[in-house]
Amino acid sequence: MTPAGTARAGDPERTTLAKAAHENFPVAPFFLPRAWRDDLMAVYGFARLVDDIGDGDLAPGGADARLLGVSPAEAEDRLVLLDAFEADLRKVFDSTPGHPLLRRLQPTVRRAGLTPEPFLGLIAANRQDQLVKRYETYDELLAYCELSANPVGRLVLSVTGTSTPERVRRSDAVCTALQIVEHLQDVAEDLGRDRVYLPAEDMKRFHVQEADLAARTAGASVRALVAYEAERARHLLNEGTPLVGSVHGRLRLLLAGFVAGGRAAIRAIAAAEYDVLPGPPKPGKIQLLREVGVTLRGEG
Fold first, then answer.
1. Whole-model pTM?
2. CA proximity to 99, closest of 112, 87, 107, 111
């Protein structure tokens, strides 16, 4: 297998899109119409690349920086890269961008009549990650999710021509839940990046210190905190689940997959007895398919 860094140096577009296979939810499954699959992969490519810039996960070699017109001297500066990425994004709407993932996005933007706002929200979330490392309250975390997660669901609705105010509201609940679940899975990894997405007020309530999050395994207090946040995510998923029943056909199956991915991940966290510190608890395919069935039947 070709190392990721080597692949990105030669083909940054393909390497970024390959990460779709490792998400908690299906990005552009085979059963969707080809046009939808192409559009959803274009949106995913944008979202994945901006996250990789914000997390410092671009592979060595500087291919992405060169494509964005960033000099080698500034290729490690995430804020500079995000500024360059935003400038290239704006070209999607009025000229021709330089990065191949943004050129791939341009036909989708035109076909679906997409606006810059959701894309700018995702960039703003990654800028915030460079400046804000802790969240005092749950409401502050929700405001972050409004930038980091909710635009993705809104883009899916826009691409499929099914956006309504009520569906957007339900979609926001699902996307925020998925973001919280991902944060729970990645507590140890995020701490390694000097980021904590567990609200400080909740950590105090459960008598959890940051040092507790650096342990190899979680103690009782950390497990209780993770269980509490997982239950919050589950309630959000339940709030958003009527979105699935509001659409029909293959889109219904896609949205059921999003909800099911979150539910299966929460079950995997619970199966690990809420000890997320050794590594991200991940659901198996059978569990995911089971949750898809439950969601389609309107149960759970």
1. 0.91
2. 87
- E strands, 38-148, in order: none
Rounded Cα distance between 292 and 281, Å, is 19
Contact in structure between 296 and 244 (CB atoms under 8 Å): yes
How far the first Cα of the chain sits from its last, in Å, is 40
Of 243, 252, 29, the closest CA to residue 154 belongs to: 243
Burial 234-258 (b: 16+ CB within 10 A, else e): bebbebbbebbeebeeebbbbbbbb
- Distance, in Å, from the CA atom of 295 to the CA atom of 243, rounded to the nearest integer, reads 11
Phi-psi region of 134 (alpha: psi -120 to 50; beta: other; left: phi over 0): beta
The residue type of 177 is A
Phi, psi of 105 (to 5 degrees): -75, -25
pLDDT in tens, 134-170: 999 999 999 999 999 999 999 999 999 999 999 999 9
Note whether 135 and 200 are within 8 A (CB).
yes
Rounded Cα distance, 274 and 219, in Å: 10
Per-residue DSSP letter, 74: G
Half-sphere exposure of 74 (CA within 13 A, CB side): 12
